[in-house]
Amino acid sequence: MFRRLIQTSNNLKLKHKLLISYVLVVMIPVLIIGLAVTGYFRKQALDNAIGQTINNVEKVKSQTATLLRVPTDISNILMFNNELKEIVNKRYESVVELTSAYLAYKDFQEYKRLYREVAGIRFYSTNPTLINNLEFIPVDKQTEESYWYQKALQTTSIGWFYIPDKGDNPVHKLSLVRKVPFAEYRTEGVLMIVINQDELNGLLRQEPFETLITDEQGYVVAAKNTELVGKTLDELDFGVDLQNQAKGTIEADFQGEPSNIIIDEISPGSSMNSLKIISVFATKNIVKDANTISMIGMLFITLVLVIALLLVYIISFLTSNRLLRLSKHLNKLALGDLNVTSRIDGNDEIGQLSRQFNYMVKSINELMTQVVEATEQNNQLEIAQKEIKLKMMASQINPHFLFNALESIRMKAHIKGEAEIANIVRLLGKLMRKSLEIGNGKTTFRAELEMVRSYLEIQKFRYGDRLAFQIHIDPEVEKIYIPPLIIQPLVENAIVHGLENKEGTVRVNINIRLVEDVVQVCVDDDGAGITPERLAEVMQFICGPEEQEKSRIGMRNVHQRLTLTYGEPYGLQIKSVYGKGTEVSFTLPAGGDQHV
After folding, report:
1. Which positions, given as ranges, span the membrane (predicted)?
2. DSSP SS3 for 507
3. Of 237, 263, 511, 529, whose CB is crowded by the most CB atoms within 10 A?
4. 18-47 tens-digit pLDDT
5. Long-range contacts for 293-297 (Cβ within 8 Å, ≥24 apart)?
């Protein structure tokens, strides 16, 4: 799939590629970003409106709780009012006696005068001798069957209800309803404190959106639009059951328009029920400004994209035209015209290609002359290499003759009981044969150490007690391939320079260990050591381009072979303390195809 796409792209003309790239990389992303920004602004406007509305609802909730605290406190006082208890439970013999009692009781009127939150106070009683004076009201059948009255008799907690009376003196307002028991008389009544409607509506008058307060039956007890007071939520066209809706934010169609609705509840102290606060705002009014700004932005972006598209088309046309001219010159060159010259002006990449084309034509003419000369030189080199190969084949006769002579000496020494001499001759022959067989190929750590051990045994025979050596190699390293003769020169250097200026025994240690994925090779001795100045000269020679010292050629050869084979990090590292000894080490990668 990917190859097919690349092939299709390679088959398109440059101007078409530029136009497609512009559409895919610029136009479509910009349009997507524009739509995303429009949506972001719209969401931000909605979120801000919702946040503002939630704050407003909290404010209304707090103010409403403050307003309702006044009738709550009044009801708590009247619960234990002895004068109220006497006037409600006394059996009156005449209307005159009842009238005198009514005229003497001024508490209801006094609370109404002192607190603007209270529109009126009523007490419903089952005392048959009472007469309805709009403050003390005998309970009739209609009252007994009313929802609020039945709820009030179930508990002494406060209830908040809209009273939709249909009698002679209807309330039609939010009212505090509370049962007042008289234990000593074994009677009870219901206290009603009517809330001032103007005070309730005044809490909502300054709200920016339509806000309602409803009771548990769904009656609107207060609203910014006062015409909604007394209606139920079912009568209002919300399109969703708000009566049973939990607190939070929902989306619904209010009066046919998409709207956001914020719902919260307020539960005054000691209440058996709660009031619901509902705030509604139409979505289109909130996002109107954001949509206008987004539309202007999209028009501006579209205009910029069209202008940019024209510029891309013009640039692609001019570029394609110059490339076609350069292509014609290349065709002439391909047909063998080595005198063609490109004359495309400009300092851009195409102008540079035109000048490079002229340089290329000139270079081709020069190279053709050089090829003829190089061919003659190569022929001479091939002849010289054949002569060197013949000489190398002939030189192999002398080493074989030397091996045969050494073997004869070894056998003679062995027959005469000279076991030590016979062994040294055997090791010398083995060492030389291994050197000849290795050539330029690869060997293993095991084979390399066999040669090193033979070399050390010969030197041990030579120096006696002045030389001691120890060889350690991890078993898992033995079969790893390495370039030949990279350890033996280091051992030879340690013996020659270690014994040079020191009396007594010199110890040479060879340690080859596997640490994670790296093989560490270390050859150290406790010989005379090297001064810091001399060590700096040795390192400069080993890493330098020219051979200057005959005594360090072996180490320089090892260092260069290591760096050429494995890279710069794998060259020789030399540490030395003058008078204490020298340590030469290097590392090799243990992974890959290095194992046998």
Report:
1. 20-41, 295-318
2. strand
3. 529
4. 778 778 777 788 778 877 777 776 677 667
5. 293/41, 294/34, 294/37, 294/38, 294/41, 294/42, 297/34, 297/37, 297/38
